[in-house]
Amino acid sequence: MEDKNVYQPYLMRIAAAIQETPDVKTFRLEFINEEEGKKFNFKAGQFGEYSVFGEGESTFCIASSPTREGYIECTFRKMGRVTKALASREVGDTLGFRGPYGNTFPIDQWKGKSLLFVTGGIALPPLRCVIWNALDTRENFKDITIVYGARSVQDLVYKHELAEWGKRGDVKLITTVDPGGETPEWKGQVGFVPTVLEKAAPSSADTIALLCGPPIMIKLTMPILTKLGFSAENIFTTLENRMKCGIGKCGRCNVGKYFVCKDGPVFTFSQVNQLPPEY
Amino acid sequence: MTEKKTIKKSSLDGLFKALKSGGKRVLAPVEGNGRTIFREVDSYGDVASGYIQTTLSAKDALLPRCEEMLRFRTEQSTVAMEQGPPAPAPTVVFGIRPCDAKSLAVLNAVYLKDYNDELYRARAEATAVIAVSCTSCDEYCFCTSVGGSPGDTTGSDILLTEIDGDTFLAEIVTEKGTALVAMAPDLFAAAADSAAGKQLADVKVQFDLKELEKKLPGSFEGPVWIAQSLRCIGCGTCSYVCPACTCFDVQDETEANRGMRLRCWDSCGLGIFTLHTSGHNPRDVQSQRWRQRIMHKFSYQPDQLSVVGCVGCGRCSRACPVDMNILQHIKDIVEAR
């Protein structure tokens, strides 16, 4: 049997840091051991345990696309002990990473289809991985539509990339902020994601929907997607629960008999609808 | 194929000495302060007698309550991994009951299936179990309701069962057991093939496990969880005394620029166990946590890992500060319409 300690993280160097909002930050991490970096691969949807040595580990998705090799990126909000410590780290500092863990979005099965991304606030990172994966293999997909909202202009993450997607002719990007969250310069929509989505009314024909956001947004968006003709098995999401190990042993992220870390984090809504309300 | 021998009670001290001189650490139940706890012992004379069940199981020989996962040193912006603790000492656990021996199957299923947990595997490999069958039980015992029995060999390397006042039948179940016998071959005598004379407690079957497993998936939203857990104070004691509970927390501890990452026993009975950073908690109230405890052991683990996460040792009921009795609660669930 393999005698490697499964809890031993890779040592990663912070190669770049972006302050997305006053309390949300993105790190680009590169493997300090190049051999480990060469062997490492992951797929869209997977996550990992990021650590600040001496403070602990925290669970986030891999927010970069597997098509961009040599690094991974994570985006996090400064909230608890570990994320506060992470936020204080700078380019050049060493962090730990364990992963990749969990299942993946079945992107390979979506060839020839259109993709609709519906997301809010800091739930864009898990979908940003899929968005870049799709854009880097653009020929595999028909229309790509992104509906992204935040409480205010200040709370939008990946502002530089939103601008880039907005300029591309092969992406339809709709950004919105909650009423009152707009600035005088704001050129996007004003309104909540479900309302904006309903008005935009993207076609459900041969289309996969990816929906990630706060529970209230999901709750109000699902009926709209259904009205637009999306069936539950064609709507994908990621679930998040408190995790420690990431590999099905520490025992807390389960929803009924399924572990979010091992059986998820990617689920279709036809699967989610079968789960007990434990997420 | 289990080999059968006998050993005199008076020879057990010689066995302990042979194991120790062969480089084994021997853990056995020791009495003190009204509790019977596993400690390292020098001779058989130190071992408690007449206990029905030890206050705590010997689980922390395999899964220490707080265990080092890795060690590191931080300097400015760099981190260096340091050598972890030495390999676990070769250990013999003597005197655990067959129910506790059976709990090793649960630990193995959780820690060795899918991702192999090397920390656990190394301890499990370094540990051998000499269990002692039960000659008596109390009202909390229900091993026979969850597939065990007072003389069950599952999980033991050697199982000792009294056949008369001064002799044990020794059932040598595994290669590890054979290796232990080989350390003191003269102390063991050939045994008659029959198991006649085994003195075992009479533990009555109290509920139908299959019926429970069938019932639970449909009981998720039932009223029983609230009714049963109204008095639960969420202290987590049931998890800490359970030989089959495996959930853990991960924490870093540091001193100056050196630190270690630890895994520590945790409990689904505690609210923080599932608390999200946002403040949202998928198991927000105690009834949901009590349901998780029962579902995990009697529905999810049988379904996903093919083991029942409870061995009927009764410790959670004996230790519960508000007298929740798992056996009674399970019977009520099985009988609920």
Molecular structure report:
The complex is a heterodimer of chains A (279) and B (337). With 279 residues, chain A is of the alpha/beta class. Chain A has two domains: 10-101, Elongation Factor Tu (Ef-tu), domain 3, CATH 2.40.30; 107-238, Rossmann fold. Chain A has helices at residues 34-39, 81-87, 124-136, 159-167, 193-200, 215-227, 260-263, 269-272; strands at 10-21, 24-31, 47-52, 56-61, 72-77, 94-101, 114-120, 144-150, 172-177, 189-190, 207-212, 235-238, 254-255, 258-259, 266-268. In chain A, the strands form three sheets. Chain A has a seven-stranded mixed sheet with strand order 10-9-8-7-11-12-15, sandwiched between helices. Chain A has a six-stranded antiparallel sheet with strand order 4-3-6-1-2-5. A two-stranded antiparallel ribbon of chain A has the order 13-14. The longest helix of chain A is centred in the middle third of the chain and has 13 residues, at 124-136. Chain A starts with 9 loop residues before the first strand and ends in a 7-residue tail after the last helix. With 337 residues, chain B is of the alpha+beta class. Helix content of chain B is 28%, strand content 23%. The longest helix of chain B has 20 residues, at 286-305. Chain B is globular and about 65 Å long. The interface between A and B is large, with 45 and 51 residues.
Quickly describe the structure:
Chain A has 279 residues and is α/β, with parallel strands linked by helices.
Annotation keywords:
heterodimer, A: 279 residues, alpha/beta, Elongation Factor Tu (Ef-tu), domain 3, B: 337 residues, alpha+beta, 12 strands, 23% strand
How are the elements arranged and paired?
The complex is a heterodimer of chains A (279) and B (337).
Chain A: E1 10-21, E2 24-31, H1 34-39, E3 47-52, E4 56-61, E5 72-77, H2 81-87, E6 94-101, E7 114-120, H3 124-136, E8 144-150, H4 159-167, E9 172-177, E10 189-190, H5 193-200, E11 207-212, H6 215-227, E12 235-238, E13 254-255, E14 258-259, H7 260-263, E15 266-268, H8 269-272
Parallel strand pairs in A: 7-8, 7-11, 8-9, 9-10, 11-12
Antiparallel strand pairs in A: 1-2, 1-6, 2-5, 3-4, 3-6, 12-15, 13-14
Helix pairs in contact in A: 5-6
Chain B: E1 3-8, H1 12-21, E2 25-32, E3 35-40, E4 66-75, E5 78-82, E6 91-96, H2 98-112, H3 118-126, E7 127-132, E8 158-164, E9 167-172, H4 175-181, E10 188-190, H5 209-215, H6 224-229, H7 237-241, E11 248-255, E12 258-265, H8 286-305, H9 315-319, H10 326-335
Parallel strand pairs in B: 2-6, 6-7, 7-8
Antiparallel strand pairs in B: 1-9, 1-10, 2-3, 4-5, 4-12, 8-9, 11-12
